[in-house]
Amino acid sequence: MPLKDLIDFLALAAIWGASFLFIQMAVPDLGVMPTAALRVGIAALFLLPLLARRGLLGDLRRHWRATFLVGVFNSGIPFALYAFALAHLDTGLASILNATTPMFGAIVAWIWLKDSPTGSRTVGLLIGFLGVALLAGHGAGIRPGADATLASWSMAACLAACLCYGIAASYTKRYLTGIPSLVTATGSQIGATLALALPAAWEWPDRMPGLQAWAAAAVLGVACSGVAYVLYFRLIERAGPARALAVTFVIPVAAMSYGVIFLGETLTAWMVGCGAIILFGTALATGMMVLPGATRPR
């Protein structure tokens, strides 16, 4: 990978890894829905001028229905689910569960797009979900004092968010192929904002949130969504989708590092081991790795 692409790759992993940290900073004061809504709303405001500068507003008008809908599944629902989950889980655990996104994408593509997995990919799915079961069953990564039932629901919320990402990916491949990436990114953030506006207004806190919460929401919107989308789509254009997808494997490392350094979270050997199993399974499930003797998917 050329140096400029490697810089984009590492910056993207660092930014997306930090999103878990900033969600935890924002949720206590803002609440779940307002945090998610502010993130996508600020991102939309950040991306719209970039879209206008490139003369793509007409494309957005032509494809607003499809891009708005994909935003509900690619940003609106997942961001709300992670905001709920991170009130009860450490950033390390949430980021490891997030690494299952490509596996869910493979399952949805299998069912919806008839993209049948090879034997190597099927083994990868089984290995990946075994890692999830081991991780969830051990109880590592639950925030101190968190209710056990809510923690279980939080882990389920993370996996549901990953399923939403998988649905959005297949929808994009089927209905948005050929549309400029910046159009899809901007339209999706607008669609997610509209979907979350009423729930966020209903849950808006009675007391004025503190400066830390506002700052965290701003970073989530501008950096973790706006800038990250620019980096991600630029990486796809320069290095290809397979290399861009590999950022999923680096995000947990960044997220766990932030959690340990800034939040004093505990990183256990069990979490690391289960995370390695999940990442190995994900690599097989997505075709980035193949078992000995297997044919690499085209």
Global structural class: mainly alpha
Helix proportion of residues, in percent? over 70%
Overall pLDDT: 88
Say how many strands there are. 0
Beta-strand percentage?
under 5%
Distance between the termini: 20 Å
What sequence of helices (H) and strands (E) makes up the elements? HHHHHHHHHHHHH
- Over all CA atoms, what is the radius of gyration? 18 Å
Characterize the largest beta sheet: strand count, sense, and whether it forms a barrel. none
Principal-axes shape call: globular
Detailed description of the structure:
This protein has 298 residues and is mostly helical. It is 78% helix and 0% strand. The protein is globular, with a radius of gyration of 18 Å.
Write the layout of secondary structure elements.
Blueprint: H1 3-30, H2 32-53, H3 57-62, H4 64-85, H5 91-98, H6 101-112, H7 119-138, H8 148-175, H9 181-203, H10 211-239, H11 241-245, H12 251-263, H13 269-285
Helix pairs in contact: 1-2, 1-10, 1-12, 2-4, 2-9, 2-10, 4-8, 4-9, 5-12, 5-13, 6-8, 6-13, 7-13
Keywords:
298 residues, mainly alpha, globular, 78% helix
Summarize the structure.
The protein is mainly α. It has helices spanning 3-30, 32-53, 57-62, 64-85, 91-98, 101-112, 119-138, 148-175, 181-203, 211-239, 241-245, 251-263, 269-285.
